[in-house]
């Protein structure tokens, strides 16, 4: 039976493809306070601003491509069972060839009804104020905002519980509940943490690779071959 590698990926995973990390040092995201563009209250206060913000993010996806770290993760499927649990809302893992990807925080290329969170559709174009679902509710990005439930978290926990190897890549492990997933892996499995500025880790089971995603994945391949 193939070993099961679980990848927990965050914004640093896509940074080398040109997608900015969720928020920079001054707490802004693309010049906006995150609560203006990533909360239900922000959407209520200025839905047009929020829709335009995500329209720009969606358009950007057409100009970026997977980097070598995305591709290396996809290639792991030749030798391992691989599950990707990502905090990212882009589709770069899928475009690189990964076949088992769970998006914790939603997907830019999907929309949902603001009146029914289960009414979800693939959507490639801009969303405008006045675009409504069949029941007349405004369409919104299929993104989990601050203050909202994370509907995929239980599925992510189940995936982590079956991991033989856990790889954390490009995430500060500060955003919950995603950061709690490390607590659900079995005792004594190998955990690799790839990040150029890793958070302080005290667990002796965690092997820190203080590199960018693209460099760190190459280091990981050497570790897995030992």
Explain what the structure shows.
28% of the residues lie in helices and 23% in strands. A 6-stranded parallel β-sheet has the order 5-4-1-9-10-11, with helices on both faces. Helix 5 (68-75) runs parallel beside helix 8. A hairpin with a 2-residue loop joins strand 2 and strand 3. It has 2 domains: 1-19 and 65-105 and 148-226, TPP-binding domain (Rossmann fold), CATH 3.40.50; 22-63 and 110-143, 2-Layer Sandwich (SIR2/SIRT2 'Small Domain'), CATH 3.30.1600.10. It is built from 8 helices and 11 strands. With 226 residues, it is of the alpha/beta class.
Short description, anyone?
Helix content is 28%, strand content 23%.
User: CATH topology of the largest domain, what is it called?
Assistant: Rossmann fold
Count the DSSP helices.
8
Major sheet details: 6 strands, parallel
**CATH architecture classification name of the largest domain:** 3-Layer(aba) Sandwich
Low-confidence stretches: none
Strand content: 15-25%
CATH class of the largest domain: Alpha Beta
Kindly report the spatial arrangement of strands forming the biggest sheet. 5-4-1-9-10-11
Order of helices and strands, N to C?
EHEEHHHHEHEEEEHEEEH
Shape descriptor: elongated
The first-to-last residue Cα distance is 18 Å
Helix content: 25-40%
**In total, how many domains does the architecture comprise?**
2
CATH superfamily of the largest domain: TPP-binding domain
Rg computed from alpha carbons, rounded to a whole number of angstroms? 18 Å
């Amino acid at each position: 039976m193939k070993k099961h590698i679980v990848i927990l990926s965050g914004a640093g995973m896509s940074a080398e493809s040109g997608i900015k990390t969720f928020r920079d040092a001054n707490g802004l995201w693309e010049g906006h306070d995150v609560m203006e563009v990533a909360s239900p209250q922000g959407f209520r206060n200025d839905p047009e601003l929020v829709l335009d913000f995500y329209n720009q993010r969606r358009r950007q996806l057409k100009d970026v491509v997977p980097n070598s770290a995305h591709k290396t993760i996809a290639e792991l499927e030749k030798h391992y069972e691989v599950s990707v649990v990502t905090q990212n809302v882009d589709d770069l893992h899928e475009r690189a060839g990964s076949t088992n990807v769970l998006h914790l925080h939603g997907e830019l290329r999907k929309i949902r009804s603001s009146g029914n969170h289960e009414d979800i559709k693939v959507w490639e174009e801009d969303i405008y104020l006045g675009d409504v679902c069949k029941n007349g509710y405004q369409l919104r990005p299929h993104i989990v905002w601050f203050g909202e439930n994370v509907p995929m978290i239980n599925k992510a926990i189940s995936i982590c519980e079956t991991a033989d190897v856990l790889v954390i890549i490009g995430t500060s492990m500060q955003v919950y509940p995603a950061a709690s997933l490390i607590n659900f892996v079995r005792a004594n499995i190998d955990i690799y943490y790839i990040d150029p500025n890793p958070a302080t880790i005290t667990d002796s089971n965690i092997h820190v690779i203080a590199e960018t995603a693209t460099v760190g994945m190459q280091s990981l391949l050497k570790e897995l071959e030992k």
